[in-house]
Design brief:
LEP-R_IGD, five-stranded mixed beta sheet, mainly beta
Length: 571
Amino acid sequence: SQGNSTNYPTSDHQVVCDAEDSLMCSIHLNSSRTFSVLVTVNISNVMASTVLLRIPARPVKPSPPVILSHIQTVEAELILSWKEPSDFSGNLLRYEVRYSSQNTPPYWQVVSALEKLNVSLDLEPLLKYTIQVRCTTQSQSPLWSDWSKPYYIYLHNVSYIPQEVVARPGENVTVYCVLNGHSANASMAMWSLNRMVPLDPSLYHPVNQRVSQITFMASKTGMYDLLRCTQEWSIPYSRINVEGGFINITCVTNGDIDTMNCRWENEEWAILKFRSKSAEMSCDEMEERERDGEDVGEVGPECSPNKYKEKVCTFHPLKMNCYKVWLELPSHLGLIRCKPVYVSPINHVKPNPPTNVTPVSLSSGILRVTWNPPLLPTEGLQCQFRYHTLSVIEKWKFEESVRVPWAEVEIPDMCQVYVVQVRCKHTSGIGYWSEWSDSIHSTPQGSRAPERGPDFWRMRQDDPHRSQSNITLLFESFPANWNSYCVDGFIVQHQASNGSVLRRQIDMVSSYSFEWNQELHFVTVEAYNSLGSSVNNVNMTLEKEPKRKKEGLKRAFQQSLREGNLLSAQH
């Protein structure tokens, strides 16, 4: 009977048993549906008392345990845990655990766990273990479940407790290092930070033979710290995620004020996600309202640079609102965020460099520099120029910034060439300096062309085989800076006997050589600048040598010609 009704149905099956003193009859029952049976017996038309037969439950095979996991304790103990099967009816279960480090064929070691949902295992490091659990009920005729799905454990030489944790900047964190080899000695542990920085031994000590403990202050900068307790670098480490750590995020608005680039500096290997929110209010108001717990602003799109070295994200088009920017790092414990930065684009403008830079050296000993400042920002700009002489590379002299598009500085030599660059910045001092303009060379502003050319001598070397001579002009020391003009160089003019003229422009050198074919030839040397060349110059006449001993060196400046002399100088 499966119900509570007293009108039990009577079986149509009649059993007849013959015996003298006692009898035994067998009755077939469907135990899958029937839990108890009332039996009535007639003996020679005499009704015996009703007999109640209780049918014992058929043994049920449970499902295997699920969700296997393991932890290590600070006592260097490894605990395997699992969950009981979902169809468990409430009877007490007992468990068996088997594990093996061999694949084919596996050599199983079996451990009983009775009614507990965990067991301690003694595993060796650097071996991959396959682990399974099964269960059965506490009945007289138990049936074991199938073995659970395989669970794998591989122990490194070192384990850390916890493997990962979240801390605030400057907060103390305690980490345990478990040395999994039975012959290990925790007193030999040497803790280091971020793969290379040894930590003070006073921060750590052994807990027992195989466990070392350190209490460490989480960094105030960066997204996480990595701790390890051995000299050899291995994959296991303890990661201290820093929630709210400082990362230097720098945002720069371009000179056209339509794009803002935000860059950051961090040493972590992980690729961080750059996130932002913007709100139509001042940054002070946005920060204060968020501090009070209010959710303000619109979340911007996520920016994830594809490469480790790419640490920049761009806002375009740009809103003139307040931007809140921060970095995120996914972890097993949730998202880790750095300290946010609030940025107003107009306060972080890097103007375009100035154009049309014109440096001029005045005859009064003043270097005057003019330029065209960039158009933005419209609130005004201050500009600064730097300079150095062309002969001294990259030894810059800086002048004070001005709010007008020109500046002057005294210089010792108006004829020197100066290299000049200019940059600009917002008048209030906020934002950034522009890049320096292109280097421009100064030009001296002379009042007139040079008055006279240089004095010189000549030196002659004859080649008897070719009827040619090598002529070298030796110039008298000639200053580049005169009272009212500068000299940029010399012009050597050659005039042949047929009237052809060749002019060569040279620097202010001490000598100049050329080949002469020993025919009548006239040479004139002029001094020149940007306004013209001198007209009062020294002239030299070269002609064939007379039959007398050749003179080696003569002064260029002569008033008259002596017989046989090859050098004629005239003003």
